[in-house]
Amino acid sequence: xxxxxxxxxxxxxxxxxxxxxxxxxxxxxxxxxxxxxxxxxxxxxxxxxxxxxxxxxxxxxxxxxxxxxxxxxxxxxxxxxxxxxxxxxxxxxxxxxxxxxxxxxxxxxxxxxxxxxxxxxxxxxxxxxxxxxxxxxxxxxxxxxxxxxxxxxxxxxxxxxxxxxxxxxxxxxxxxxxxxxxxxxxxxxxxxxxxxxxxxxxxxxxxxxxxxxxxxxxxxxxxxxxxxxxxxxxxxxxxxxxxxxxxxxxxxxxxxxxxxxxxxxxxxxxxxxxxxxxxxxxxxxxxxxxxxxxxxxxxxxxxxxxxxxxxxxxxxxxxxxxxxxxxxxxxxxxxxxxxxxxxxxxxxxxxxxxxxxxxxxxxx
Length: 364
Description:
Layout: H1 42-51, E1 57-65, E2 86-91, E3 97-103, E4 106-112, E5 116-121, E6 126-131, H2 134-140, H3 145-148, H4 152-161, E7 165-175, E8 178-187, E9 195-203, E10 209-216, E11 224-227, E12 231-232, E13 250-255, H5 260-272, E14 274-276, E15 283-287, H6 290-293, H7 311-318, E16 320-324, E17 327-333, E18 338-342, E19 346-350, H8 354-362
Parallel strand pairs: 6-13
Antiparallel strand pairs: 1-2, 1-11, 1-12, 2-3, 3-4, 4-5, 5-6, 7-8, 8-9, 9-10, 10-11, 14-15, 15-19, 16-17, 17-18, 18-19
Helix pairs in contact: 1-4
């Protein structure tokens, strides 16, 4: 593959809304050829996507979003991923991966060989080497195939919404030079959601999603797009998953551990989180730990695009102050979802109008 002379490939990007976290992935449509393919039922196509194991591949990623998110810069972890110029992904199909993300003149490289993760930034010529002990990898899921598969989130999304959707196959398309089926999921009339439909272009051979588009109500173009304009399913050279820092790079070495405080928070979050509804109008509710809500800003470190800011200051700057029978708090809205964080630390988030969030907050 020659990224400089060929198009841009795509993978999955998640975007978080508020404390609850809403993940959506999308890939752009294109006016490509419509190849002749054997007929397949919508249900069989969905099942094959959920069960697919694409194996080794490499590709380049481009993200384009029209979500209507506030310009938070590096203040929110992951926000910069939506504004990256491109990313090149390599996977051996068995847990090893290499990701190179380009933003402007700088590039960040993350290499995962199963037991070690290297994170290098060309912007400041720094590298972090994290060794992952076997017991930590088992608990955190490090080295799993999902780490290397950038489209794992799309198959999970299909599995969650298909029961509350009208599912159809809307012809075929050529995506990244490969023949694909166009799978369309539309919410049933009873679903109260901001989303109009999800379109997925599925590779006819590997059943890997090559393109996915999330469209919101009242719009004719995708709210978020990520696309494979080129992809090759082939064995990858072993040296791609080894990393040697450039000369003069400042290297920091760490050993991954299970932080007891983080573990306790995760366990408490499981107990506090409640799912209201199902399908497209699912709302996740819960409570943010007081120490996180009142956390002081921290200096940026490590991977580019990560940052920490005063949570309350961010809310006052980018969110709308709201109140109701459920209490008072801050509302964040985008074209594909909304989230509320109350003054006493409760949250509700979903791909739904704000009224549905308020109803969920009012449930005991």
